[in-house]
Amino acid sequence: MDSNTLLFFILSLFIGAILGAGMYFFLSRRKSGNGNSKVEATVLVERIEKVFKVVMAEGYFTEIYNYQNDKSIWNLINDKKKALIIAKAKVLVGYDFGKMRYHISEIDKKVIIDFFPEPEVLSMDTDYKFYDIEQGWLNRFQSDDYTAILNEAKQTMNEKALQSDLPRIATNQVQLMMFQLAATMNWKIDMQLPEANKKELEEYTTYRPTDAGIDNLDWKRD
Known about the structure:
The chain has 222 residues and is an alpha/beta fold. The protein has helices spanning 3-35, 143-163, 166-184, 195-204, and strands at residues 53-73, 77-96, 101-105, 110-115, 120-134, 188-191, 214-221. It is elongated.
C-alpha cells in the first residue's frame, strides 16, 4: 500500500468517525429531549352500579348568555366585567326502569304496571365558548365565576329539555316499545296506575312544540 492510499484510508476513517459521532450525538439529544416529557394519570373507580336506563329521545340545544357583573368601588368607580357565552348541548331523555314498580300475572300473561316513572334527562353532552370577555381593573374573572356560569348554563339546558317536546316523544316511544315487546311474546301490558301517577303520565302525552334553538338570555349579576 503506497503512502497516498494509506493517507486516503486514514482520512476516510477519521471523517467516518466524526460523522458517526455527530449522528449519535444528534440522535441521543433528540431522544433525550423527547424523554423529558412525563405524563402520569390515575383513574379511580369509586362505584359501579347496575342500571336499567333506556334513551328514548335526543335533542340539540343552543343558548346564548350575556353575562355582566358590576362592582362599585367606594361608590366612585363602577368596575364591571362581562362576557358572551354560547352554550351547546346534546340532551338524551329517557327512562330509569329501576324506578318502575310492577308485578306479573303468569295465569293471564300480564305485566301489571303499578307505578310508571317520569321521563328524565339521562345524559347531557355540553360545549361552551366564551366571547367578548371584558374585565375591569379589580373586578376580574376568577375560576369560581366560570364554574358558576357553566353550572347555570347546564341547569338552564336541563330545564329547557324538560320543557320541550322531548319528554312527550320519550313517553310515546317507551310505551310503544313496551306494548310491542309484550305482544311479540303473547303477553299484555296492564297500566293500573294511581290517579296521581296517571295524571303525570297524561301530561307527558300532551303535545308541546319542541322548544329547541337559540334563546337569548340576559343574565346580569349584581
